[in-house]
Amino acid sequence: MKNILMTIKDCETATIASPIVEKTLELASLCSSKVHIIHIAPPSCEPPYNVDSKMFHREVANELHRKHGFLQNLEKCMQDINIDATALLVQGTIISTILQESERLAADLVIVGRHKHGPLYRALMDNTDKGLLAKCSCSIMFVPV
Q: Which of 16, 40, 110, 139 lies 20 to 30 Å from 97, alpha-carbon distance?
């Protein structure tokens, strides 16, 4: 396994000690794999009618800059423990972006955090897990978070 794509959903709560990061580090160490850390930001949108567009776009840019800084810090932490890591901040829809990036990076494994939800939530909300399982050409590992 040469390339691992690790998805980070929430930059505010993910740390080097998070379950998804720990599992990725364990596998990368065992297999001497390169780790691609990816966070997918929602596609750009227009501001609400009652919000100044310059202020809205400035806030979006600040948020993306903050997330990029977090990803770079996580990348550096991995590199400090001799893991070959690269961080990516990509805008797009979750499933299609993960699929595109896994193909582009020739990922052998995609690691995704998985939250436990009840049947009502699963019935009403889009299910990233099922979309990836149905369409991804490489192995997928779900890590409880």
A: 16
Mapping DSSP to helix (H, G, I), strand (E, B) and coil, where does residue 7 land? strand
Query: What topology does CATH give the domain 3-144?
Result: Rossmann fold (3.40.50)
SS3 state of residue 141 = strand
**CB under 8 Å to 121, separation ≥6 — which residues?**
none
CB atoms within 10 A of CB 4: 27
Q: Where would I find the beta strands (DSSP E) of the chain?
A: 3-7, 34-41, 85-91, 109-114, 139-144
Residues with Cβ within 8 Å of residue 36, at least 6 apart in sequence: 3, 4, 5, 6, 85, 86, 87, 88, 101, 105, 107
> What confidence tens digit (pLDDT) does each residue in 15-53 have?
888 899 999 999 999 999 999 999 999 887 777 777 788
Q: Where are the domains of the chain?
A: 3-144
- DSSP-assigned letter for residue 49: T
Over residues 121-141, the pLDDT tens digits come to: 555 555 676 777 777 889 899
